[in-house]
């Protein structure tokens, strides 16, 4: 029989701290195994390795016949973290629908899953209003999606009341009866010993005694408790009990017994002689995680992520403020920026487009960075990223979903601002419709400019790992690329005095900045707009095609940088 989980001589160290050493463990289909140990014994580290979230130093790990984090493993493994974290702006129903779409399941099943864990009445409330126990039930609901073959549960009953704990273990009994394997960690020995098939201990100290969970014998047979040999180990699973008798396989479902929680090591998996502490050989290569390549249709997962992120963005007050600012400034510029139309000999809307171009150079990158700076760091800080990464979705797909959602929000903000300015301008001068092509070009190029800064924001978010640090880097990037870069070029041109830098290097350095390339493309493409902005000379020097090429290249390069930064993030 193929084991659901196999660990062989697993070792993991964090610099000078050894988390796991020579851990060996097998979990068979339909088996419920409880993982016990003191705080810091390595239970969470072991589970993260099984889920493919972190690499390990040496040993062998097979999850459902594949490597941890592989497509086969992610498709059949469900995870419930100790402190289930979800975005507070989503409702329970929306969150479960997102997870269902990631696994390729119909979103209509979300209501049934929430009813199954007792959250049917609160399904349409935002998760930010849930108690800890309710959030844990949401985590349990997502762990039931798609009939998983292996459930990895980290302190699954944390925050649950006694009735909910009883229902939880009854649910595990049903899943195990269907052939699902369960690996759960807990500190409550008296709680798990009666509801699991085997206990496994991770401990750095000597085990005083060890035994299997007590099994109630069938009527007419004496109670039997297999004996185990004491063993010692440092951060490893130890101890093997004799095979269970036939009466253990047909035991009735035991009732949950009240008792105090304890960290005392009482059961072990495999007896091994005590070994000296062994450090990882620096010359030995570390087992790095391979990039996950999910099966199925990637667009389904990208669109699912985009829908969820779009809902979150619309409920963000900063996005509403950005839209309001865009509309307000656009209306002000349409009213105050159209005075010199007669002197310049251009239509009123072209002058408005020239003013809106300057507004977009400053405001669109700022809004894009404000939306994206916590795209990765915020997920890490909230604790929502590790759970998403256990699903069959790759990191580039997550980034593309976020990018589509944020681009949609940015498009709405730009369209609302520019559209209101166009309506106001045409209401004052109906003959100004000749400037509509320039306005349309400004609209889609603003979205393209926003895409470049959205991707740059994701890269900063992945590099900083904290939202506060990512926010500081985002503001610094905006100041450098929007303000200080042009001031530096201007100072260099003045000091050059019309030499080689001004005639040869300056045009290329100007379009190397996406903000300047955007400005030149919009003002140079229209003679009326360039005349209104007073950049006709620069427009003739730099072809619009070069500026457009720079605008198209920047989002691609920035997206690649953000993918590289995201792959280095360890949840």
Largest sheet: 6 strands, mixed
Poorly predicted spans: 205-211, 213-295, 528-537
Mean pLDDT: 79
Instruction: Give the class from helix and strand content and strand pairing.
Output: alpha/beta
What fraction, in percent, of the residue positions are helical?
40-55%
Shape by Cα distribution: elongated
Detailed description of the structure:
Helix 12 runs antiparallel to helix 15, helix 12 (348-372) packs parallel to helix 16 and helix 16 (436-464) runs parallel beside helix 22 (544-567). With 571 residues, this protein is of the alpha/beta class. The protein contains 22 helices and nine strands. The chain is 53% helix and 10% strand. The longest helix has 34 residues, at 395-428.
Give a quick precis of the structure:
The protein is an alpha/beta fold and 571 residues long. The chain is built from 22 helices and 9 strands.
Describe this protein with a few key phrases.
571 residues; alpha/beta; six-stranded mixed beta sheet; three-stranded antiparallel beta sheet; elongated
Topology, please?
Layout: E1 5-14, E2 17-27, E3 32-37, H1 43-51, E4 58-63, H2 71-76, E5 77-80, H3 92-102, H4 110-116, H5 132-143, E6 150-154, H6 162-177, E7 181-185, H7 189-192, E8 198-203, E9 236-237, H8 246-249, H9 298-314, H10 317-336, H11 341-344, H12 348-372, H13 377-382, H14 385-389, H15 395-428, H16 436-464, H17 467-496, H18 500-512, H19 514-524, H20 527-533, H21 536-541, H22 544-567
Parallel strand pairs: 3-7, 3-8, 5-6, 6-7
Antiparallel strand pairs: 1-2, 1-4, 8-9
């Amino acid at each position: 029989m193929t084991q659901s989980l196999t660990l062989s001589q697993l070792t993991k160290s964090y610099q000078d701290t050894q988390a796991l050493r020579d851990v060996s463990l097998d979990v068979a289909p339909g088996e419920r195994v409880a993982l016990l140990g003191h705080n810091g014994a390595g239970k969470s580290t072991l589970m993260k390795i099984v889920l493919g979230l972190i690499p390990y130093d040496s040993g062998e790990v097979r999850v459902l016949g594949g490597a941890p984090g592989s497509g086969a493993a992610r498709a059949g493994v469900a995870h419930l973290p100790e402190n289930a974290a979800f975005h507070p702006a989503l409702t329970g129903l929306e969150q479960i629908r997102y997870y269902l779409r990631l696994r390729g399941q119909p979103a209509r099943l979300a209501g049934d899953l929430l009813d199954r864990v007792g959250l049917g009445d609160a399904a349409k409330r935002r998760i930010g209003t849930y108690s800890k126990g309710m959030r844990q039930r949401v985590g349990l609901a997502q762990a039931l999606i798609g009939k998983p073959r292996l459930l990895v549960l980290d302190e699954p009953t944390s925050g649950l009341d006694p009735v909910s704990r009883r229902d939880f273990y009854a649910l595990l009994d049903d899943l195990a009866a269907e052939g699902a394997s369960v690996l759960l960690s807990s500190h409550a020995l008296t709680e798990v010993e009666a509801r699991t098939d085997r206990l496994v201990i991770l401990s750095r100290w000597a085990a005083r005694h060890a035994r299997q969970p007590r099994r109630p014998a069938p009527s007419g047979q004496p109670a039997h408790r297999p004996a185990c040999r004491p063993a010692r180990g440092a951060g490893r699973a130890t101890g093997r009990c004799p095979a269970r008798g036939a009466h253990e396989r047909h035991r009735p479902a035991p009732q949950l017994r009240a008792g105090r929680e304890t960290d005392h090591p009482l059961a072990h998996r495999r007896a091994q002689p005590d070994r000296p502490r062994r450090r990882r050989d620096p010359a030995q290569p570390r087992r790095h995680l391979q990039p996950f390549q999910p099966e199925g249709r990637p667009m389904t997962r990208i669109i699912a992520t985009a829908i969820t992120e779009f809902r979150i963005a619309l409920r963000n007050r900063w996005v509403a403020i950005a839209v309001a600012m865009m509309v307000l400034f656009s209306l002000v510029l349409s009213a105050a920026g159209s005075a010199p139309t007669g002197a310049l000999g251009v239509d009123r809307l072209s002058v408005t487009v020239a003013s809106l171009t300057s507004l977009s150079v400053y405001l669109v990158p700022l809004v894009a960075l404000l939306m994206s700076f916590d795209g990765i760091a915020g997920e890490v800080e909230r604790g929502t990223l590790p759970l998403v990464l256990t699903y069959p979705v790759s990191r580039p797909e997550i980034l593309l979903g976020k990018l589509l959602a944020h681009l949609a929000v940015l498009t709405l903000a730009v369209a609302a601002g520019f559209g209101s300015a166009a309506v106001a301008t045409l209401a004052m001068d109906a003959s100004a419709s000749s400037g509509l092509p320039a306005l349309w070009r400004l609209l889609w190029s603003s979205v393209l400019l926003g895409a470049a800064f959205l991707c740059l924001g994701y890269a900063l978010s992945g590099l900083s790992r904290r939202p506060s640090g990512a926010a500081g880097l985002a503001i610094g990037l905006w100041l450098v690329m929007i303000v200080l870069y042009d001031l530096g070029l201007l100072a260099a041109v003045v000091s050059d005095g019309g030499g080689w830098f001004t005639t040869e290097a300056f045009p290329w350095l100007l379009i190397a900045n996406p903000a300047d390339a955007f400005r030149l493309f919009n003002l140079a493409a229209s003679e009326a707009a360039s005349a209104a902005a007073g950049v006709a000379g620069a427009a003739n020097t730099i072809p619009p095609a070069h500026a457009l090429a720079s605008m198209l290249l920047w989002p691609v390069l920035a997206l690649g940088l953000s993918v590289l930064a995201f792959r280095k993030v360890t949840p």
